[in-house]
# Entry
Amino acid sequence: MKYQNNEETNKKTVFVGAVTPCYNLYPIERIITLSAMFDKQQTEILVRHDEHALNFLKQKGITPIVYKNDKQLIAELSKLSPDLLIHDAGSTELPLIDHLKTFIPTILHFDDFGEGGSSADCVFHTLYQEKREKLLPHFLVGPSSYVVPKQLQAISKSTHNLSDKPHIVVAIEGSDPDNTSYRVLRHLLQLQIPIKVSVIVQMSYAHDVDELKLMALSRKNIKVIQKDNAIYELLEVADIVICGAKYTPYKVATIGIPCIVTCQDELDMQHIFPTETNGFINLGLGKKLKQSILQNAVMEYLLHEARCEHAIRKQLNIDLNRNNQYIQSLLKSFIASPAKSTAFLVEEQAKKTSGMIQ
# Structure
């Protein structure tokens, strides 16, 4: 989908992005997608210094302004003096956002779980948890806050029919600190059935990729791929995806694939999107994953076609493909008329859609 402005505007929008603490590149993907919704001549992208992020942006033909700390960020933003700041660089502290608000009229955040979010004009929570207390009115929480990357929009999935050798794609996000990729592959190799396995690790993978490749040699049809965003090349042909609990489940649910989720830590276990309600089998902590549990989950999909269809139907019913249009409308409302944006938020919350639970 190509985004264009319907109205000419001289208002400047700045996007600030950073990889997650575990080097997940999705926030960088998100600001690329969001920036395409605005006039290129009136946008700037700032990125916290990280070689993985900079290499990824270089591949996309984007040269961002680079900053290393909050002091440099403030200095760069002060020079740019934007009308709208879209911040996707993790959680923030209140003093930083209060200072930025002295010279930036409107500030929107994605997945900010710090105190700074309370001072922003709007906060989208994609990695949301079960509500335990009422959030502030400007927090929009739920699946509708997920921004669909451009590469994902081009993938179409046909009716799910398992092949003679089901293709299992393993895609653990970021640096994979507990080496869940290794544990999952070791367990899959013990399945006494014909399967094809593709293990994707990102360039930030924190372990020796040769160990994975060596293990893959023990059986035919096993492939290890170290490449950022290789998942887009494999989703279209995957019969089952095994992934982490952050952003990859959203990518899977956008096109509908039976999916097994493992969590990196206790915080991941609190994310309530990748659960049975939305069509996922969630196995909990990857570092505690037992062979029998993983194999049973895989066989549940392979032996029961109705189980696969049910999972896919639940994912597709969320209708994530409509998200970008919704988010674009909201962002444009802020830049066109900030005074009306609060009313827009109230109206959206009043709808109480299943996609936006706050």
Residues 151 and 325 are 16 Å apart (CA to CA).
